[in-house]
Design brief:
Helix content is about 45%, strand content about 5%. It is mainly alpha-helical. Helix 1 runs antiparallel to helix 3, helix 11 packs across helix 13 and helix 13 packs across helix 14. InterPro entries: Haem_peroxidase (IPR002016), Haem_peroxidase_sf (IPR010255), Peroxidase_pln (IPR000823), Peroxidases_AS (IPR019794), Peroxidases_heam-ligand_BS (IPR019793), Secretory_peroxidase (IPR033905). Its main location: secreted. One of its GO terms (biological process) is response to oxidative stress.
Length: about 325
């Protein structure tokens, strides 16, 4: 796989541009899939995402997370976007998604614009995948080419949404197994959790961490103790109290896509148990090495993140490729 690296300067931030060879006889996605049917699709999504992230920088993390939750259930097929109906049990109410996964209205907004220009052409799955790439760029992350040509599924899986997605308190071995199941390596896993550098977490997802081994992993560092006190103000120990209060997973540069999250893990200050496990788990010999590498070398992190996002985006629902569709409304199967 050949890598072409170019460095661009945008608002004094150096943004690496990674272009990978995505061709291959077994890969049904291409870079020019919409060249003749909807040539403006990438420009339309980019322009709208610029407005959306400008309105609230947190929208970048919201869209990246939505893409992740889509791809880990049935592949990247837009199934996460489907509303529940009498005949379809959706994924939005599954435990990893309910009351936390957002961004549906953002996708609706972009879809409406694209439908007005190229009706019935661009799938919701492709729209979400492109939007996640643009969201990354707009907060300082790397560029990568997005292969397109996905079809939207006519089904969703509440069961797989419940079991396939990693949880905030999950152990390292179990998380690795979930990534392997998707065809993603340990290196992919560590790179992809780097997106938490712009993420927010709800109190209910980090309560056990800050009232658990947080002091132990920070080696009783006084500076970390001050940070912990702030976290405990946001998130009371009693279950049910302040469950939906939120804070940034990267408390240094929360709105900038950089490698700061790995420095957070090195300090033992990872907000989620599942993140900190990457560095402090007894089983984390390989993961600890990779975390340290990305903390030391932001360009290596950006390069691998780009590769891993392409790889994750290429997790396909083979059934949808055969009998899928291009939804007119991302929330509902066409009738």
């Amino acid at each position: 796989m050949k890598l072409l690296l170019v460095i661009f300067i945008v608002h004094t931030i150096f943004i690496p541009c990674f272009s990978f060879d995505v061709s291959g006889k077994d890969l049904p996605l291409t870079l020019d899939y919409y060249k003749s049917t909807c040539p403006t699709v990438f420009d339309v999504i980019k322009k709208e995402m610029e407005c959306i992230v400008k309105e609230d920088p947190r929208n970048a993390a919201i869209i990246i997370r939505l893409h992740f939750h889509d791809c880990f259930v049935q592949g990247c097929d837009g199934s996460v976007l489907l509303d529940e109906t009498e005949s379809l049990k959706g994924e939005k109410t599954a435990s990893p998604n309910i009351n936390s996964l957002k961004g549906y209205k953002i996708i609706d907004r972009i879809k409406n614009i694209i439908e007005s220009e190229c009706p019935g052409v661009v799938s919701c799955a492709d729209l979400l995948t492109i939007s996640a790439r643009d969201a990354t760029i707009l907060v300082g992350g790397p560029y990568w080419d997005v292969p397109v040509g996905r079809k939207d599924s006519k089904t969703a899986s509440y069961a797989l949404a419940t079991t396939n997605l990693p949880t905030p308190d999950e152990g390292l071995i179990s998380i690795i197994a979930k990534f392997y199941y998707q065809g993603l390596s340990v290196e992919d896993m560590i790179a992809l959790i780097g997106a938490h550098t712009i993420g927010m977490a709800q109190c209910r997802n980090f309560r056990s961490r800050i009232y658990g081994d947080f002091r132990l992993t920070t080696a009783l560092n006084p500076l970390s103790a001050t940070y912990l006190a702030r976290l405990q103000e946001i998130c009371p120990e009693s279950s049910g109290e302040g469950d939906r209060n939120v804070t940034a997973m990267d408390n240094v540069t929360p709105n900038l896509f950089d490698n700061s999250i790995y420095h957070t893990l090195l300090r033992g200050e990872g907000l989620l148990n599942s993140d900190q496990e990457m560095y402090t788990s007894l089983f984390g010999i390989q993961t600890r090495r990779i975390v340290s590498k990305y903390a030391e070398d932001p360009l290596a992190f950006f390069e691998q993140f780009s590769k891993s996002m392409v790889k994750m985006g290429n997790i396909l629902n083979t059934k949808s490729l055969v009998d899928g569709e291009v939804r007119r409304n991302c929330r509902f199967v066409n009738t």
